[in-house]
């Protein structure tokens, strides 16, 4: 386990980097939670805009959630192979680009 390093040059104060890391990981956790539920409020608009049935909209929701469930272990394996930080940055980047395109 890595403990925070004490910086002797600043009078023995603990480095702030663990707090920054905690804040970033907390935001990533919130982002993952929002990603799983962001399509739910859009279902009525999807039904109206695309003129589809409620059954079809349930397939859209199911495919969205299944994709997330399938990609989770794949992303875990890739992070074991190529490094957790690198894969986290790549996945967050892809997610951000996808959300931006969807917003446009």
| Strand order in the sheet with the most strands | 1-2
Low-pLDDT residue intervals, each spanning 5 or more residues: none
C-alpha-based Rg, rounded? 20 Å
Q: How many H/I helices?
A: 4
Described by strand count, sense and barrel closure, the largest sheet is:
2 strands, antiparallel
Q: How many DSSP E strands?
A: 2
- The separation of the N and C termini measures 43 Å
In sequence order, what are the helices and strands, one letter per element? EEHHHH
Q: Look at the structure and give the mean pLDDT.
A: 81
Number of domains: 2
Beta content: under 5%
Bulk shape: elongated
Global structural class: mainly alpha
The percent of residues in helical segments reads over 70%
Provide a descriptive summary of the structure in words.
Strand 1 (6-7) and strand 2 (13-14) form a beta hairpin. Helix 3 (54-82) packs antiparallel against helix 4 (84-103). The mean pLDDT is 81. This protein is mainly α. The protein has four helices and two strands, in the order E-E-H-H-H-H.
Q: What is shown here, in short?
A:
By secondary structure, this protein is mainly α. The protein has two domains: 1-37; 38-104, no CATH class. It is built from four helices and two strands; from the N terminus they run ββαααα.
């Amino acid at each position: 386990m890595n403990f925070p390093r004490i910086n002797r040059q600043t009078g023995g104060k603990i480095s702030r980097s663990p707090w920054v890391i905690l804040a970033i990981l907390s935001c990533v956790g919130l982002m993952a939670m929002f990603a799983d539920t962001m399509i739910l409020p859009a279902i009525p608009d999807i039904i109206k805009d695309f003129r589809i049935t409620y059954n079809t909209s349930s397939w859209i929701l199911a495919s969205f959630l299944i994709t997330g469930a399938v990609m989770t272990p794949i992303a875990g394996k890739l992070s074991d192979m190529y490094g957790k930080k690198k894969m986290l940055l790549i996945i967050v980047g892809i997610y951000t680009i996808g959300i931006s395109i969807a917003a446009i």
